[in-house]
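So, can you check these tokens?
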Amino acid sequence: MFGKKKSILEYRCDRGEVIDKMRDMLDRAAAENRDLTDAEIADYEALEAKQEKIGAHVERMEKGDRLNYEMDQPISESKPIHLAGQEYANNQPKRIIPANESFADATGVPRLPNGITLGGVLRGMAGAGMTPEIRNALSIGTDAAGGYTVPTALMAELIDALRAKSVCNAAGCQTVTLDTQQTNVARMDTDPVASWRAEAASVAESDPTFTNVQFNAKSLAVLVKVSVELLQDSINVEQALMNAFAQSLALTLDSAALYGTGASNQPTGIINTTGINTVSMGANGAALTGYGDLVDAYYELAADNAGPPSAAIMAPRTLAEYAKLVDGNSQPLQKPDLVSGLPFHTTTNMPVDETQGTATDASSIIVGDFSQLWIGIRQQLRIELLKEHYMENLQIGFIAHLRADIALAHPQSFCRIQGVIPA
């Protein structure tokens, strides 16, 4: 089977053809409302063994390509050479990825050939533009339930797209790759305390506290409906589909990261995490009159030995209220030096109908070091195609399903300013 030298793409196409034959056998039996015969089971198992063998060969070729690429890179003291598959302290796929790094680059996922994009895969699923490369990608990803498990490289493309649209990512949150349903990451809740000592005297004991931050991957799904005509005729439908999925998933993840309740299958967000700091605008809330609330939040963080805040996230209404502040000469009010460099980010995920005493139109501001906000995402995306359900309107539905969770590495690095009401 491997006598003739082929490219990786050709072997992938071979594997796709084998998987197509397996699918045809199952579809034929299902259409005839029967189980596979003994002979068909034997043929199916032979095909399954064949596609697994081709898949293993492709994986070896991909590893060889990665090794060749790495061996061709210049050797330097700052970037040591390493072999594919080996992990080094300074040059291994990252599990915790800063906001300013590409998820695809940090995790080292293999690159797919040109012409394969998530939008193209979605279009191909609907039968509106099937290239050999897309057909192969779909065949590789087909799962037992009839949906499609998107290749890891395309999943990374979607994650980077949604991170680009996430206000929490803009504020500096970190992305954690989750390999299992439950993933533990260690954190230190209290620091060890150093002490001075006399010569030959014993070292005083201190009690640092270590705990686990546990991610429990929860299900997040989105449904997008597209007309058949748009799929067939639009020149930018692939990018539009990608944007639709990325925007929806980003908004939902942001909402969970900021206000998730921990109930009804939601993660627990910053506002509802025990241990964050708070600054109140008063028993019944109050309008902004200056930047003192931000200075108070900065103090609360500093008192807990937290790092300096990286951003403040607020509702658009709140940002507008800050912009309207003026001094005694009716000039725009300047921020105090302490918070002058603090970036402001806005999102409609910050509600403006919170209750604070008699106020029912209050809002909050979240100030903090957002690198201590971790958004865990499993590197697996499943797509379901809904053809018949919406066909009466000549529409096709796509359901994208991924699993994610939220955790705070250091709750004391965040402060909620609550009770901000309009002027």
Remarks:
- Residues 38-72 form the longest helix (35 residues).
